[in-house]
Design goal:
This protein is mainly β. It is about 0% helix and about 50% strand. The protein has no helices and 6 strands. A 3-stranded antiparallel sheet has the order 2-1-6, with no helix packed on it. The chain has a 3-stranded antiparallel sheet with strand order 3-4-5, with no helix packed on it.
Amino acid sequence: MVRFIYPDDTFCFRPLHTVLAIFFDDAGALVARVLKADGSPYVFEIKGFELIEAGKVYP
């Protein structure tokens, strides 16, 4: 799993197999490109991300 942190410090989780790319766009913002449930790509700005390891408990 990947935990994406939005610029307003909220977050969401996405399965790793739906994450296509994490990169800086032309404006210099960090963005993520993921697949929606219907298979279409979705790009959104993020503040950061964290890889969540299976079986590990995060406080």
